[in-house]
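Take one record.
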Amino acid sequence: MSTIIQLTANPGKVVSRTVWHIHHLRVLSRKNAILLLVLLILGGCKRRQLTTPTVQMDIESQFWIRVLLLDDVTACTLKIVSPFSVLNDQTAPQTQITETRFNQTNIPISLELTNGRITIDDQAFANEKIIIFPDDPYIFNLNGKDYRGKLKLIVNPDGNSFDVINLVPPEPYLAGVVGAEMPGYWEPEALKAQAITARTYCFYIKKRFGANREWDMKQTAAHQVYRGLSAESAQIWQAVNETKGQVISCKQSDGHEDIFPAYYSSTCGGHTENSKNVFGDSFETLIGVPCPYCQDVAKPKFFFWPMIQFDKADVTARLLQRYSQLKQLGEITNITVAGQSDYGEFSRLTKIKLIGSTGKSDFLRAEDFRLAIDPTGRKLRSTICQIIKLSDKWAFFSGRGWGHGVGMCQCGAQGMARDGKSTKQILSYYYPGSKIKSIY
């Protein structure tokens, strides 16, 4: 019998040919034909997840990344394909570590907080901090999402909730970031530039803030997006492996070379911005540069975004909720531009003046103002825009770009890679004066 399914580059053609064959092969019953068609469609739509060994599980402790996956929760669901151990806080002396083994595999079990204690599959643990350590391949599923490494559970001081932290080696962490921050089918040189910037940013934040808290990074765009195994692909792993341990550094204020917060954003809109104007910090390499590359890569609807409107009452409520010092203004009655960077055909707002019904006024950095009004950043996509007051709304129009615009423009990096530029050239362009070095 001839083969029913013919593989083509277009999934739609696979289905249409299959339907044709099903219609003409009378040996199949109508019920079986429908079932076969459904299975073909479902099989074609399901995204395959790459599973490779989890590397670097023996790397020195100072290089492990602590990612906050869940905070202030009372329960979650865990599933692990291998047996696993539960240890008390691994920072304790080795002689104090106690171990409990769980041999059930690939079965959902509940992690809950009961009477101030963490329970795993109804077994209570007295320690306020415990480590869940899967056996090889060191992969676990938390609330339906797969991650690598280990889990740390920490009961919060009030005893009413706990935090869930992923302890993961740097390269597996980067594999879950690069594929979430940049399409895996983009040019290899752009992907490698993304890997180096993400690694640099991560280790800077870890060094700068990690010592004072139980975690280093959030898994959201508040730091950089991390999606675990679902973001991985062969292309992503190649970019991560080919840049293993590489970061970028620049000259610091005291004259020595060190890593810096290697910010990046989706689409700068034509010119990147000085970090001092956006985040308030000042690094020699975080200065604005022209970017003629991103407009040819970004979709037009993302490069130029349409006018959006917000109710005046909502704007006041969101600003006062986020910045308590603004409560002295009362209702926000006027919003004016107090600072901007002019780039010829467009300007990026850098400072906003707010005037209130009480007659008082105050200032915010434009990026802080933007994210207070739209925390998602998906509507008010950048501060390259103009602001006008309507009857009961604030309108933002002539918008372009997506993100804060500091450091590497991701679409611009792809544009440079398409033009044949190397990873080193991309990084040198968006971070002038920076150098690539290895830290492990």
